[in-house]
Amino acid sequence: MNDNQQVAQQVMVQFSEQEYFSFAAEIMKPLRRRRFMQCSAVMALGVASGLVAHAVAQILSKTTALSASFYLPVFVLLFLPLYLGSLRLFRAYFLRGHFNNRGNFLRRMQFSLQPSALIIASDISHTQMSWRGILKIVSTKDLILFYVDNMQAHIAPKRCFASPEAAEAFYQQALTYWQAAQAAPQPETAP
C-alpha cells in the first residue's frame, strides 16, 4: 500500500459545535416541510384567536369608547412580534453550548478505514462499526457523514484533512468499502 492510500485511510479530527450545527441543518432538510406546516398551523391559530379577540371587542365596544375594529390590528401587531420573538429565543436557547467538555463528542478522534469496518478512537473510547451497520455515507461542503441511523451519524470535518483532495480520497475509499459490504451476501440470522 503506498503513502497516498495510507493518508486517505486515516484522519485525526476534532469536532466543533459549529460543525454539529452544520450536521443538524443537513439532517433537518426532510423535516423543513413539517416545520412549515407547524408554523402555518400556529399562524392559523393566531388568526382564529384574533377573530375571537375581535368578537370579544365587539361585545366590549358597547361599554368602551374604542371601536371593535381597533382590537384586531392591535392584536395582530402584538401577536406576530411576540410569536416570532419567542421562536428566536427558543432557538437561541437550544443552540447554546450543550456539550460537555469531558464527554467524547468534542474530543480529538481518529477515523480509520479498514476493509471490514470504520474505526473511531479517542483517548476514552473505541468504536468499530462494520460497513454493514452504516446506512449511508454523505459528503457535504464541510463534512463527511457516516449515517448509522436516519438522524445519527459519525462526523468527519473536511477541515481536518491535509487538503480537499485528501478529504475526497478518504470519502471515496470509505464509499468503496461501504459499497462492497452492501453488495456482499447477508449472513444468516437466527430466528
- What is the helical fraction, as a range of percent? 40-55%
Strand segment count: 7
Label the structural class. alpha+beta
Q: Which strand order do you get reading across the main beta sheet?
A: 1-2-3-4
Rg, rounded, reads 26 Å
Beta content: 15-25%
Poorly predicted segments: 1-8
Quaternary structure: single chain
- Helix tally equals 5
Output the helix-strand order: HEHHHEEEEEEH
Indicate the mean pLDDT: 76
Shape: elongated
End-to-end distance, in Å? 41 Å
Main sheet makeup? 4 strands, antiparallel
Can you walk me through this structure?
Helix content is 50%, strand content 20%. The protein has 5 helices and 7 strands; from the N terminus they run αβαααββββββα. Helix 1 crosses helix 5 and helix 3 packs antiparallel against helix 4. The protein is α+β, with helices and mostly antiparallel strands. It is elongated. A 4-stranded antiparallel β-sheet has the order 1-2-3-4. The protein has a 3-stranded antiparallel β-sheet with strand order 5-6-7, sandwiched between helices.
Task: Give the topology, please.
Blueprint: H1 3-9, E1 10-14, H2 17-28, H3 32-60, H4 68-94, E2 108-113, E3 117-121, E4 126-130, E5 136-139, E6 143-149, E7 152-157, H5 164-183
Antiparallel strand pairs: 1-2, 2-3, 3-4, 5-6, 6-7
How is this structure best summarized?
With 191 residues, this protein is of the alpha+beta class. It has helices at residues 3-9, 17-28, 32-60, 68-94, 164-183; strands at 10-14, 108-113, 117-121, 126-130, 136-139, 143-149, 152-157. The chain is built from 5 helices and 7 strands.
